[in-house]
Design brief:
By secondary structure, this protein is α/β, with parallel strands linked by helices. The protein is built from 27 helices and 18 strands. The strands form 5 sheets. Strands 1, 2, 13, 14, 15, 16, 17 and 18 form an 8-stranded parallel β-sheet that branches.
Length: 706
């Protein structure tokens, strides 16, 4: 069997295994067809305070719009003080420095402070009525060991919480200077204690109000790691006795309930009662907010989890943004989260109409809720009880057979540049297959990400090679405009097919639940964009620019010594700027943001199409491909070379589309399809415009020569 046939067979086998993995992923994504809202109770209370309607009204209002859930945080000393409950709390160290406060303390507390039984890290809580005392005392007794709190009875009841150094809350370091402005000492001033934030108990009056509104209540527990085992017991008991219908948990704070020592029993309880953890996406729209123990819990539940989107302040302030008159841009943010990032819970907070004012414009909410629901129907997504992600894993054998296609394409591309004997090719093939197998066996997690990156690079580079080969066929071809259009379209079809398959192939290595939940992410996006550009330059020089009798050194020398026209410099700088913006905007951690005009165009396409095509593909890259063919036909190889780089940017971008694993497969395919179709239209328009401009330039040049 010829070596090329072996390479083709290898690619076919690897694609069959990869599409098998994608099928499993598709079935999981196809099950995620319900979404819902979880109302933030604290924010609902602020909306009620900022309007002429009470909390009960607003809860019922949003329930009628479709919201199904509301969160109920455990009360803390801080929240109780904020609610106006009759208690106060001070750090013991601060009271020692305040004579008036210290003098009003009971003698028993003063004595314990003087003897060191109460130290400066403890929190002294004064409770002004029996009802508040009973609530706090019973909550502490049910959640913490007796060594955590001490009761002091006086005219008022006092509870002292045992604090530690790590419980203190400090300001940033303050630098003290001498008269010459020289730094003497840096001081971190203690301003409060984390003990104000420990969980006390659920307010059952609030619970009754929420339950009566028709919303399902989700208890949100607060953890304190010193007593995590008992906190886990209490949370399990609270769910079992007070809220047995609760099927989702949205944990509060930096740790999940029971972390670290009580996580085993929490996991067992949640698994036995089909309770699903909810993971809130981070503000960068990537991964999720860090909560100690959450990832371990989700893993122990076989990745049974749901992604949630919280409405950050900058999101809910977008009333009237981008030429809209209402809350359409807020709605757009929710729509993108649900359709593009597999979000199935919206942690909902009321809109804000500027200056931190809560919007009580009911029409805004009615319109945006209804519009979002209608738009999601086209994706088969509706209001309901969201389903958990579910688990899918790939075996070492799966990954290994999938990876073999990388070796085949890599060897093919090497042979496109260098003439290698088949015996050497067989040796390379054998060594590479052995090394890939060893990597998959020894470092399985690293292998998956590495193969995904290599797959993206190989298919993008293969499309660059095909682009160069097909482009070489039209050099100085004297084709008419129509034939240039047809040739360009043919090349676009072939190259798009390659990168579309490549996108599906590379993402198949990461088609596991932890990547879909963004508990792990693909971090090679920028590299997979840059390498194909370099490959395009190499292939272009090798296949198109090189003359038949050129050696490589001679070709490079000829290229470096060419006379560069100002027009080439201008085009090159323009494309360089576009490339910078393109690479900088890859990912969500960049400060380079779209312009208002681009956002308006994006929003229009998003509302009119099931999937918005990527603007850099159909507005920049694919027209550049048509321009490349046109200028090669006119034998303007330098301009065509610049255009070829722009073209490969769009081709690599299609592979990049699939690297966002949280996006459903069908959406990535649809997005690439629309980019292709729009690219043909913009490409044809671009090549006609270029032809007109070229003829005008030729006529102008002739007039100058005359």
């Amino acid at each position: 069997m010829k070596f090329k046939k072996i390479l083709v067979l290898t690619v076919v086998i690897s694609l069959l295994f990869s599409f098998s993995a994608l099928y499993k992923r598709f079935n999981i994504e196809n099950n995620l067809k319900e979404y819902n809202y979880i109302l933030d109770l604290d924010e609902m209370e602020k909306l009620a305070d900022d309007s002429d309607k009470d909390l009960e009204y607003w809860l019922g209002f949003f329930n009628e719009l479709g919201a199904g859930y509301v969160s109920l945080n455990e009360e803390s000393l801080y929240s109780m003080i904020e609610d106006g409950r009759r208690l106060s709390a001070d750090v013991a160290g601060d009271m020692e420095k305040d004579y008036e406060k210290f003098s009003r303390l009971p003698e028993s507390i003063k004595m314990d402070m003087e003897e060191g039984i109460i130290d400066k890290f403890d929190l002294i809580v004064k409770l002004h009525d029996n009802e508040t005392f009973d609530f706090v005392y019973n909550g502490l007794k049910n959640r913490y060991d007796e060594d955590f709190y001490t009761i002091y009875e006086d005219e008022y009841n006092y509870i002292v919480l045992d604090g530690l150094y790590e419980d203190m809350i400090y300001t940033n370091a303050v630098k003290y200077l001498d008269i010459d402005g020289m730094g003497i000492i840096n001081v971190n001033n203690a301003v409060s204690s984390k003990l104000l934030l420990v969980g006390i108990d659920y307010d059952m009056e609030k619970y009754s109000l929420l339950a009566d509104s028709g919303l399902k209540v989700l208890f949100r527990p607060i953890n304190y790691s010193r007593y995590s085992d008992k906190i886990a017991d209490n949370f399990i008991n609270s769910i079992s006795t007070l809220n047995p219908e609760q099927k989702y948990v949205l944990f509060y704070g930096k740790e999940i309930a029971g972390y670290p020592s009580g996580m085993g029993k929490l996991s067992e309880f949640m698994r036995g009662n089909d309770i699903v953890p909810v993971m809130i996406e981070s503000g960068e729209q990537r991964e999720h907010l860090v909560q100690s123990g959450l990832d371990s819990l989700v893993e122990s539940l076989d990745y049974s989890a749901i992604r949630a989107f919280t409405m950050w302040d900058y999101i809910r302030e977008r009333i009237g943004s981008y030429n809209y008159t209402g809350a359409e841009e807020i709605e757009n943010s929710l729509y993108r989260a649900i359709t593009e990032r597999n979000i199935r819970f919206i942690y909902f907070k009321p809109y804000m109409d500027g200056d931190l004012n809560y919007s009580d414009n009911e029409e805004l909410y009615v319109d945006s809720f209804a519009s979002l629901d209608n738009r999601l129907e086209s994706h088969g997504i509706k209001i309901g009880d969201p389903a958990e992600m579910g688990n899918t894993k790939l075996s070492i054998l799966n990954i290994y057979f999938m990876s073999l296609g990388i070796i085949a394409i890599g060897i093919y591309l090497i042979n496109a540049l260098l003439s290698i004997d088949n015996k050497i090719n067989f040796i390379i093939y054998a060594v590479a297959t052995a090394m890939f197998g060893l990597l998959a066996f020894v470092k399985f997690e690293l292998a998956k990400v590495s193969f995904a990156l290599l797959g993206a690079v190989c298919f993008s580079s293969l499309s660059a090679y095909v682009l160069a080969v097909e482009g070489s066929k039209v050099v100085n071809g004297k084709l008419g405009l129509l034939k240039c259009i047809l040739k360009s379209t043919k090349i676009l079809v072939i190259c798009t097919a390659i990168v579309l398959i490549g996108g599906l192939y590379s993402t198949s290595f990461l088609s596991e639940s932890k990547f879909m939940l963004e508990m792990d992410i693909f971090r090679g996006v920028k590299i997979s964009q840059i390498i194909p550009i370099a490959a395009m330059v190499v292939f272009y020089l090798k296949i198109i620019y090189k003359k038949m009798d050129d050696s490589v050194p001679k070709m490079v020398k000829r290229f470096l010594m060419i006379d560069i026209k100002i027009l080439y410099v201008v085009i090159g700088l323009a494309l360089g700027y576009v490339g910078y913006i393109y690479i900088s905007r890859t990912g969500h951690e960049t400060s380079v943001q779209p312009s208002d005009i681009e956002m308006i165009v994006r929003n229009f396409l998003e509302r009119e199409l099931p999937a918005r095509p990527r603007t850099k593909e159909f507005l920049i890259a694919f027209p550049a491909l048509y321009g490349m063919v046109y200028f090669l036909n006119k034998d303007y190889k330098i301009i065509a070379g610049i255009m070829s780089v722009g073209a490969v940017i769009g081709l690599a971008s299609i592979v990049n589309t699939f690297s966002h694993i949280r996006s459903p497969l069908y959406l990535s395919v649809a997005r690439s399809g629309f980019s292709f179709l729009f690219g043909i239209i913009t490409g044809v328009v671009a090549i006609i415009a270029i032809d007109v401009a070229y003829k005008i330039f030729c006529n102008y040049k002739e007039s100058l020569d005359a």
